[in-house]
Structures are given as C-alpha cells and as structure tokens.
C-alpha cells in the first residue's frame, strides 16, 4: 500500500535543531493558550457578574419578599454582600464560582450546583448522540462532495449540508414531533422516558441509555432510545451540516496539493486519493471542527430541549428564565462558556498533536 | 433594447474610461458569475424576494398583521387566508411578511456594527503587527470563545430593553471572524509595493489603513457577512421563540412558532409556516454566501 506522503519532511530542519526548536515552540504555544484561556475565563466571569448586578429587580427583595422588616432586609443584603464595594463583590463572586458555591435555585430550591449535576447529563447524552450521527454521515458526505467537486452530487450534497445548518432547530423539533410522533408514531414523544418506566430505573450516571442498561431493564432501554432518537437526529442534522461542509473544503485543499497530483499521475483513482490519502491528511482539521461543532451543539441543545421537554441544561436555563431566576441562568451561561473554552483548547491540542506544522502558528 | 445592450457593453468593457465605470463593471461581472452559479442564483432569488416583499409590505394588498378577528380563529389555509389564521384570527400570510422586517433589520444592524469593527481591528493588527497585533488577536480569541446564543439569552433575560441589548451582544461576539480575515490579508499585504509607496509618500497611518488597506479586505468580508447572516437570523428567531424578542402584538417569526406550538397537533399551520420563513431566509443567505465565496475567490473553492 502507498504510505500517505509526508509533506512536512522536506521542509523539516535537522533533527537536533528540530527537537530544541519544537520544545521551545511547544512551550510558547502552551503559554499563549493558557493566557487566552485565562483571559477568556476572566471575561466570562466579568460578563456574568456584571449582568447579575444590573438586574432590574432587587435581588434582596426577591428573597425576603415585600413584607420583610428592614432588619431582615439588611441582613439578607449583608449576606449577599451587596453592602460591599463592587471590586470586593467581584472577588468574592469569583471565589464562590471557583468553589462551586453557585447559590440556590428558585425553581427547584436546590443548590444550583446540585441541579446542574442532575441536569447536565441529559444534555451531554443528547449532544453526544447528535455528534456521533453528524460525524458518521457528515464526513462521508463531505468526501463525496469533494470527490465530485462542482458536479451534480457536489451541488446536492452542499445543499443538504447548507440546509442542515440553516435549520431553526426549535421549529424542526416541532415539525419532527408532528410527523414522526403524532402522525407516524415511530418515536417516543417529549421527555426522556415514558412515565411507566420513570421510577423503575435508578439514576446512577443520569445517562438514560446507560442507567437502563445497568438496571437491566431492556424495555426501558428501548423506550429511552425511542425518546432520544428524534431530538438527537435533528440536532445531528445541524452537526452534519458543519462537518460535511468543512470536510469538503479541507479535502479540496488537500486535492490541490502536489502529492495528489503525483498520485493522479501514478494512475490512482480519484476516489482512492480522496478516501485513502486526502482524508487521512485532513484528519487534524476535521477533528478540530468536530470539537467545535460539539460545543455549538450544546447551544443548539438549549432550544431543542425546550421543544422536547428534555430535562437538560437548556430546559434548566429556560425554566429559570421564566421564573425570573437570573442567577441560575448566569451560572448555566458561565458553565456553557467554560465547556466552550475547554473544547476549544481540546481542539487546538488535537490539531497540534496530529499536525506538527500547526504548532508554530 | 439598444440602450440595454449598450449599457451592457459599457459595463463589460476592458478599457473603462473612469474609475466609476471600472468599479461598476467589476460588480457587474461579479453579479453575472453569481447568477451563473447554480447555488448562487437560488440564494440571490430567495434573499432578493424576501427583502423586496418586506420592504414593500405596507403597499401590498395584505390584511392588517395585528388586527384580531376572533370570529376567524384558527382557520386552515384557504383562498381567503392563504396561510390560514392564528389563535387570534390574524392573517398568517400578512404576519409572516411583516415578520421579515424586524429580522432583516436586526441582521442589518448586527452586520453594520460587527463588520466595520472587525475589519478595523483586523486590518490594524495586520498592518502594524507587533504587540498590537498580538493583543488584538488575543482579544478576538476571547470574544470567539463566548457561547453566542446563551450569552444573548442571558443578556436579553437580565436587562429590560433586552432585544436591543441582545443585538449588541450578538455584534460583540460577531466581529472576530472579520478581524481574522482582515488580519491575514493585511499581513500578506504589509510588504506590498503600493503600501510601501504610500508610506514613502508620507501618508498618515490612519489614512493608510482606511483608504489603502481596508478596501482590499472588503470582498472577503462580504462573503463572511453573507455566511454570518444565517446565524444571526437563527439567534434572533431563537430569542423570539423563547419569548425574549419583540413584545407580543408585533409579528416576529420565532414568537409565531412559539405561539402555535401548543396547538400544533390541531392547527399545524400556525407554527410551521413562520418556521419555513426562518429556514428560507437563513438558507438563502447560506446559499448566497457559499456561492459568493466561489465567485469572489475561485482559488479557495
């Protein structure tokens, strides 16, 4: 078999030099990534803190109610540290967030941290299922588009992927429920499980597919799957759009490189070039796009969950929203922001480890 | 007919007599290539149609989009009401058409804020390099890492004049891609002869940036803007869907989808048709942007 051509080899300096250089560069890269991460985190903290302070409602009044005595009011105000100067409040806020002390939710009257641990797995399950579907369909679709660039198959494939990420997901969810649940009856309706199973499955991981397996309840597993499949597929369609489109453009870039010309001259078929060589060389950027798409899906999940009554982070945000529980909304915002950030770093790390050239950038 | 032919000749000449003629000629050729692109022509048609209808809405023979008529609640699509009526008996066709206006206005506002901001920051970073470059691009990374929709939701929810503040939030998280594009173009141009010549002539830094460097970033910025627009459409309608958009009687697509949601099994048209418009507009922008990218810069297909 032809080994994938090593483009980087020709421009690489002598081995000893390279090692010294790459250590230094790698440290520099790590440093700048850590700096960006730190600044981003600070930015997120400042934004959420500021939003929490400029609320049109009085946070003290909301807790004590309007019949509280002035003493009670003053006491709560002190507990919330609102009598302190703003910089001090901010430092205390950062401390609370770092310790995981997020306050109490008005909706569930649990500590927000505890709520998030309970709600987040549902979002995780949904988004993970969606990205798996998006990748399994999206990469082949993008490769087909690249292979038949600017021909009918490419135009059709591009339209599908553009449709995928033009989709208002909340609307698609409604239409999906209308067609596949109400009309055809192929899938389970809103929620993660039918009521009948809700109390027979003990929550271990809060991931329904895994919990039902642990409990050994096959019917419940099938039921959970039938509830998950529609929202995950619809969200997966959005992921598919991004993945296919970026795969196509990365592959087209590869197909303009000299090594593909050589392979063509040696008589290799276009499909072998795309699937065996170009795809392998484009793996780094494609993986980093998958990571970014995953972060984007967490956002898409907010709207999907609202439609499917899916008890995840998105539902938690919107429920808190309608209960005017802005602190809970802000904590969830902060959390999604942090996940975003971590995924960004992961995507850069993946790219750097797969493609030595990108480390110098 | 003859004037049309001569106009076409005037536009496509290889030897333009004036700068205006050259510019118009370039746009004309671009438009022709766009219309010859199979995806591009669909995109142009969709976006042009929606923009045109939205602009002309007050002069079209439409029912009043906020006039309630409780006797005509939830009528299915018919000759009288082509797209049916909603829970308050309002004509959905009319509401769908008027609903294009706030969406398009917000898209325009976000782009008008984020594109110039991004271009200026990116071009300055690329042109001047050094620590300014490093600092500005780091800033771009920070804004890029903010979850856009969630931040817009949080801001719209926390503040009273929510939607307009959310517009600012969408713009604030929207500029970094433009800055990146402008910076990479500028970094390549920094040593170009015309830039050196302008510097040698003593052109001020600001003038160099605004008159010589920025115009060259415009084509790629236009492509990015067209590809950015669908995302803005989806965020705005998402906010509307969650009830964080315009206050009720105003027709807004996302809010209309939400209004019909509870009765979707009985009256499917109330919720689904406004959603089709969201999809169409965002699809149109995406088609347009994708084709523009092919047409403006055939090298990066």
Helix-strand layout with pairing:
The complex is a heterodimer of chains A (361) and B (301).
Chain A lengths: L6 H5 L3 H39 L5 H6 L5 H10 L6 H14 L12 H36 L4 H13 L4 H15 L24 H8 L2 H38 L2 H8 L4 H12 L1 H26 L4 H10 L3 H29 L7
Chain B lengths: L1 H11 L6 H18 L1 H19 L35 H37 L1 H15 L3 H11 L3 H11 L3 H14 L3 H8 L4 H37 L11 H9 L6 H29 L5
Chain-averaged pLDDT of chain A? 78
* Helix vs. strand class of chain B: mainly alpha
Helical amount of chain A: over 70%
> Quick one: overall form of chain A?
globular
Q: What's the multimeric state?
A: heterodimer
Per DSSP, what share of the residues of chain B sits in E-state strands of 2 or more residues?
Answer: under 5%
Count of DSSP-assigned helices of chain B = 12
Radius of gyration of chain A over alpha carbons? 25 Å
Radius of gyration of chain B: 23 Å
Q: What is the helix fraction of residues of chain B, given as a range? A: over 70%
- Give unreliable regions of chain B as ranges: none
How is the main sheet of chain A built? none
**Secondary-structure element order of chain A, N to C:** HHHHHHHHHHHHHHH
What structural class is derived from the secondary structure elements of chain A?
mainly alpha
Biggest sheet overview of chain B: none
| Amino- and carboxy-terminal Cα gap of chain A | 32 Å
Number of separate helices of chain A: 15
Calculate the terminal CA-CA distance of chain B, rounded to whole Å.
Answer: 36 Å
- What is the approximate shape of chain B? flat
Question: What's the overall average pLDDT of chain B, rounded?
Answer: 81
